[in-house]
Amino acid sequence: MILTRKEQARLFAREGFGRVRGLFAPRAASAPLLSHKAVAGPVPWVIAIMTALTVVAAAGGLALASIARTAQADLAGGITVQIAGPAAGEADRQARAALAVLSGAEGVASTRRLGAGEREDLLRPWLGDATLRTGASGEDDLLVMPELIEVRLSGASDPAAVDRVRTLLAKAAPDASASADMDWLGPLREAISALQWLAVALVALLVSATTAAVLLASRSALTANRETIEIMHLLGAHDLQVARMFQRSAALSAAAGGAAGFAVAEATILVLAGKFAALGPGSSAAGLRWFDWVVLVLIPVAGVGLAAVTARLTVLATLRRMP
Amino acid sequence: MSARCGDSEPTGSVTATPPRTELRTDARTLDLAKPGFGSTSGPIVRFENVGLRYGAGREVLSDITFKLHPGRFYFLTGASGAGKSTLLRLLYLAQQPSRGAITMFGEDAASLSRARRPDLRRRIGVVFQDFRLVPHLTVFDNVALPLRLAGVAEEELAGPVTDMIEWVGLTGAIDQRPSTLSGGEQQRVAIARAVITRPELLVADEPTGNVDPQMAVRLLYLFSSMNKLGTTVVLATHDTSLMHRQPDAAVLRLERGRLVDPTGMIRNPPERKRGP
User: Fold this and answer.
1) B138: chain A residues, CB-CB within 8 Å
2) Which of A121, A245, B88, B133 could form a disulfide linkage to B178, CB 3.0–4.6 angstroms apart?
3) pLDDT confidence of B178, banded at 50, 70, 90?
4) If you measure CA to CA, which chain A residue comes closest to B202?
5) What's the rounded Cα separation, in Å, for the pair A232 and A239?
């Protein structure tokens, strides 16, 4: 078709104006292409709950690991020597002899004999003040408190090290018994390990539930937007373009839910930390290191990624079945 | 191309010439003033013994063989249920044939991978009988949709889209949603959306079926204008009065799923045989 010069000038002017107008005032889309909040509905709420539970479970697991680590650090290399059985005088003699033998022994870093007050403090919760006062006054010789010596080794308190200490004590303090401090930690460590696995299982279950929620929401959103998706396809949209929209919607929903869930979880952890702190040093959730907090912060971030990937894969799989 | 409009330009709000625009996409530059970019010199569409059946039922299309040449105007006609819409669905790649070969723009469309199909679809503009506009988007966004899908930058959208909306005479409705428009207006939005990327092939499924005769003529004028710029147009209709307004058009006639005039010769004999 041949345009007249006048038509060409008019067309050029109109095009030029349109281009300039577009450059200075780009027009944002009036609405998202997919109906508002495609992968939304209850998804942000579900993700908020899942995130809160996951963060609390993970914090529990990390705190337990921290407690186990702290206890192990305290107790590793420690051996307790107990002299029980003989009368008070003989026990005192054997304790001093044991100290003398152990102090210069190879592999022994330090020794400390617990005083009477410390030993009473250890027994007070079980025996009570009255019994301890009676025993201490000497009016009744029924209660003879065992002598206790803390031995700190320069190396680990493995069975061989404990045997070496026992050999050293055999002649100097025949009534002495030695046990590694780690021995009593064994059952506790197993219990903590079981709780940690429980936390891992809980996190895995929550991740599965979150994945399932996003998967169902994505399918539902696909159904709700089927007409628009068909139109997009017929206009030349690639599956990845469609999937990207759902992915973004899912990620935004997960981000909103994740932020809310993390806030709730953090508040819960801080409250619990306060309660545990009241039990005494070493028992609080303040045992979480900065690295643990980084892990906790990464949980909602990972949730966003999980939701996005789940939505993307679900949508792509469903689109492949569409014409 | 020698096509000419059978009637004088209809009066109305449509403007004389489709806007010429050049848009940069992330992948390449689309020179929309040249509708045949990358086109082949021969027929752009070739159907050979194409058949289509749904499930184990009888064939709804049988032995369809025809070619579409670049820059020509085709009417696809036939009674209701003859298979016009189904044939168009094959043309705009919404359907795969049960048998036969379909070659579009030099590519085997019947065995085209899913990943390659969108690139071919972008060379085809489609106007649906029921418009199929996105209801929650404004007129502007509906028309801009193919450009956005093609990766055109937002700052480059406003000019071409506004011009296209002006071309179909809907400037005043640019921010309205489809539900607030009349049938004719919605159809014009659909046409604007179909041609905004200046497709090589424009397929329209009874675009005048839901509008009054005056609007039908105006819509035909829009298709004719696109055809004059080189776009191959296939327009399904059983409105014979409309066909008379486009005397140079070839006619593909379907009867019970079979093409009875595959070359368009019955309706559109060669030039030398015309005359008194």
Assistant:
1) 30-31
2) B133
3) very high
4) A235
5) 9
